[in-house]
Amino acid sequence: MMNAIELNNVSYKTKRFQLDDISFNVPQGFVTGFIGANGSGKTTIIRLIMDLLQADKGSIRLFGKSMNMDEVGIKEKIGFVYSELYLNDKWTIKKAEKMIAPFYKNWNHDTFYDYLNQFDLPYKAKIKTLSTGMKMKLNIAFAFSHDAELFILDEPTAGLDPIVRNEVLDLIQKELINENKTVLLSTHIISDLEKIADYLVYLKDGDIILDNYLDEIIQNYKIVRGSNDLLDDELKDLTIFHEDNKTGFTALTKEHQVFEELFGNQVMVNNPTIEELMIYLGKGDIEGSHSSHQSQDEVASQ
Predict the structure, then answer these.
(1) Residue ranges of the ABC transporter domain (predicted)?
(2) pLDDT tier at 178 (50, 70, 90 boundaries)?
(3) Single pTM value for the model
């Protein structure tokens, strides 16, 4: 499988933040969900990928090349959607297109104009008159109008109402009918990923916790629920995270077969959602050697 993006042992440090030996891949032809709490470093990594920041060490390759080998050629293949629209708000959309189009040899005015119509964006409207949602739609229209192969989307649905969010997600899915198209979608709205993600990268405290196809992740991790008296200390050591409440325990584990063999239908075993994976892996011990033990009241208060 070809990778659209490869990070190998990338480190980056400021006075307040550190990424240390970050490695992960974004496979070509899939939607990769890039998740992590606010401040975990997702936007910093995206800026490193786009060569807006320089890594202290390690390598970043896009389409098999480092950015300094062919910056213009690589960036022409990327549709980049920032979390904000960085354009002069005194410009009209028409003026913005005039300024941006020359950077892309495959710029397609007809495609861009079709997106404007689809999104109800007047061509001669000034950017300062656009709402947050309209600005994000414009951002997407620019990214999707020059025949890009890789879309890097940094919180593209933040601040959008549910109807517009669904429009944006449907648009991304339509683009991926072509199997050569690749998406790296950074978001804190996990329900967006439940709908479209094929691959998952989870960044926690500057470290990569997950980097795999979603199907394989769900095969490896299971949610087990049962009566509190079933969960002794030995079984707790087989959990990555567990919590007790009045109705019983909930645990994330890679050893669900042990629970099933011991207790049969006394326990329920389910596939985790992406949101459950993020919460429980975020609070638990990834190695599974020392499970985290919190009540639901404690979890809710954090």
Answers:
(1) 2-230
(2) low
(3) 0.85
CA separation for the pair 147, 134 (Å, rounded): 22
According to DSSP, the residues that pair with 153 across neighbouring strands are 81, 185
The CA dihedral of 260, 265, 271, 276, to the nearest 10 degrees, is: -100
Helices within 18-65 (DSSP H only): 42-49
- Would you say 230 and 246 are in contact if contact means Cβ atoms under 8 Å apart? no
Does 289 score more than 50 pLDDT?
A: no
3-state helix, strand, coil in the chain (%, to 5): 40, 30, 35
Question: Alpha carbon 272 to chain centroid distance?
Answer: 17
Domains detected in the chain: 3-214 (3.40.50.300), 221-300 (no CATH)
Q: DSSP letter for 237, please.
A: T
Answer whether 134's CB lies under 8 Å from 121's CB: yes
Task: Return the number of other C-beta atoms located less than 10 Å from residue 112's C-beta.
Answer: 21
Q: Give the whole-angstrom CA distance, residue 157 versus residue 173.
A: 14
Residue indicated by tokens 């890594």: 55
Residues with Cβ within 8 Å of 181's Cβ and at least 6 positions away in sequence, in order, are 29, 148, 149, 150, 151, 175
In sequence order, which ranges of 50-144 are alpha helices (DSSP H)? 71-76, 93-100, 109-118, 132-143
CA 114 to CA 94: how far, in whole Å?
A: 13
Write the pLDDT tens digit of every residue in 240-260: 999 999 999 999 999 999 999
Which residue intervals of the chain are DSSP H helices? 42-49, 71-76, 93-100, 109-118, 132-143, 162-175, 190-196, 214-220, 233-236, 256-263, 274-283, 296-300
